[in-house]
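> forwarded from #structure-qc
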């Protein structure tokens, strides 16, 4: 694979963030020459074998879930963390079993609400993940934390996340290839790769949100044909550059960084990047948030600790610094649409990750409240639930969980 090299790298204390680079070739050869950063197939496979791909899932269409599993390269073990109702979870298990039989992929499925988690997390620093019923809380961030414990147990060096509601399997494959290539490029203990969607697709009015698409009719017909739709009236597939929530959170986070540094920036393009990956060492040594604030909180935490905090004289917990690579994919991202209520809640949680961080001040607070007033019906920024893995023994927790769980399923094995 080949990616372009960043044109800009901005530093915020011990955090470096690249301007988005692009996928130049998904199958590259030394013989072709060309520019950018290229990873040989041997190196790419070597990194892939050390990378766990995590699929959080909650009551998604089984067709999309199946294609997600098919699309993940066979070199990487897969961890599925499900918060689906148990009757749906049983079907997810059947799908994973079939994919394993057909491809030989190593797939682990765990249920987020498995009662066995209660026993192994009680009396640990992660006990706050449990609700009043003694079960792990519903929340994307909580599910991701469980996958990090499993990744460490597997001995993985890297962890990549892909959402399971994606209509384009090719984009999932590309995300994984970007992760492998990005880790090779960064070659750093504390590294993170975050995906910038080239476009986010939606079947809607052609110029909704004031965007002119410039898409040919033939291209539109092709995308509509994927969903069995016919063109009628002014309905067509619009490939937007940004999602609604991402656009707002991106503006606020860059504004917070501009205010803090006194120099304007728009470097951050991935505040809500569900498709992202990081080194296991980074995952184990940073704080995590629950719910939908998790992706924004990752950046807010790191920038608070190693940019704002360092200005106050507090040492950054990552002595070698943290390197963040942003990569724009070739494939568009088309996923199942959620309602306005869901988006309003996601916005309140995402902006809450900034509001309740060291990045906030009077100016930033005003900008956040203006955004919530305009887009989320005066919702309050939601304070994230936060968790730390420091002092936690992931291997011990997972071994105890395996011994007690009746809902754990593993197809295939570690090579």
């Amino acid at each position: 694979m080949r990616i372009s090299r960043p044109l800009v790298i901005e530093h915020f204390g011990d955090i470096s963030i690249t301007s988005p680079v692009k996928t130049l070739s998904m199958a590259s050869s030394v013989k072709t020459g060309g520019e950018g950063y290229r990873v040989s197939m041997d190196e790419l496979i070597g990194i892939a074998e050390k990378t766990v791909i995590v699929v959080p899932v909650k009551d998604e269409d089984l067709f999309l879930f199946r294609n997600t599993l098919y699309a993940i390269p066979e070199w990487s073990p897969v961890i599925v963390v499900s918060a689906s109702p148990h009757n749906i979870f049983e079907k997810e298990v059947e799908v994973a079993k079939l994919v394993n039989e057909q491809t030989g992929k190593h797939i682990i499925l765990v249920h987020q609400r498995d009662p066995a988690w209660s026993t192994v997390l009680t009396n640990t620093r992660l006990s706050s993940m449990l609700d009043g019923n003694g079960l792990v809380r519903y929340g994307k961030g909580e599910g991701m934390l469980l996958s990090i414990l499993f990744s460490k147990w597997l001995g993985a060096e890297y962890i990549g996340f892909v959402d399971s509601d994606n209509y384009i399997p090719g984009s999932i494959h590309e995300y994984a290839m970007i992760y492998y290539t990005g880790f090779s490029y960064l070659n750093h203990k504390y590294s993170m790769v975050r995906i910038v969607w080239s476009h986010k697709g939606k079947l809607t009015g052609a110029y909704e949100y004031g965007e002119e698409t410039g898409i040919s009719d033939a291209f539109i017909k092709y995308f509509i044909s994927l969903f069995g739709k016919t063109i009628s009236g002014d309905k067509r597939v619009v490939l937007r550059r940004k999602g609604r929530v991402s656009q707002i959170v991106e503006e606020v986070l860059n504004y917070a960084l501009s205010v803090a540094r006194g120099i304007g920036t728009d470097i951050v393009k991935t505040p809500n990047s569900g498709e992202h990956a990081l080194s296991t060492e980074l995952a184990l040594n940073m704080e995590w948030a629950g719910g939908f604030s998790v992706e924004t909180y990752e950046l807010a935490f790191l920038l608070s600790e190693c940019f704002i905090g360092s200005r106050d004289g507090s040492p950054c917990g990552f002595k070698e610094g943290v390197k963040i690579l942003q990569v724009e994919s070739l494939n568009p991202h088309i996923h199942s649409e959620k309602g306005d209520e869901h988006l309003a809640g996601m916005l309140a949680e995402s902006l809450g990750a900034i509001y309740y961080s060291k990045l906030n001040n009077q100016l930033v607070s005003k900008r956040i409240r203006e955004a919530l007033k305009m887009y989320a019906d005066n919702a309050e920024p939601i304070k994230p639930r936060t968790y730390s893995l420091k002092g936690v023994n992931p291997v011990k927790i997972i071994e105890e969980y395996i011994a007690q769980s009746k809902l754990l399923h593993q197809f295939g094995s570690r090579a």
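QC bot note: The chain has two domains: 2-197+273-335+391-411, 200-240. Residues 200-240 form one domain.
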